[in-house]
């Protein structure tokens, strides 16, 4: 059973998550998808507010490493809107990255992902992510969750 879900503001009991949007992108930018960028904090805030007004409680923000996650903006957005935000770690398909980024990651993927889970996103991801928000992780136990 999951004992806690790590959000950008800290661990939350699963029972406190409410209705979850399990895959969304509040921010995103890929050179392979021109014109499809999501870079507006105001637009992200409006989406979270609208989600909350419809009964939503948690959004899992799946924008991966190096594609404009804007990690520094996630905690304030969560606080301001009252929506839990879970930030993911990982990479998209290689086609979305330049060769220099990929070369810098070769042989270091586990190190990068574990660091994002345990220390925070920080400035990982090509310098576009600049908070100490922790990426999504869960804590597993063999003990069933209580009522």
UniProtKB/TrEMBL annotation:
Keyword field: Hydrolase, Metal-binding
InterPro entries tied to this protein: Metal_Hydrolase, Phosphotriesterase
Region (Disordered): 120-147
UniProt KW Nucleotidyltransferase keyword: no
Pfam families referenced in this protein's UniProt entry, alphabetically: PTE
Domain of life: Bacteria
Gene3D superfamilies according to UniProt: Metal-dependent hydrolases
Family designation: Belongs to the metallo-dependent hydrolases superfamily. Phosphotriesterase family.
Name of this protein: Phosphotriesterase-related protein
Species of provenance: Streptomyces indiaensis
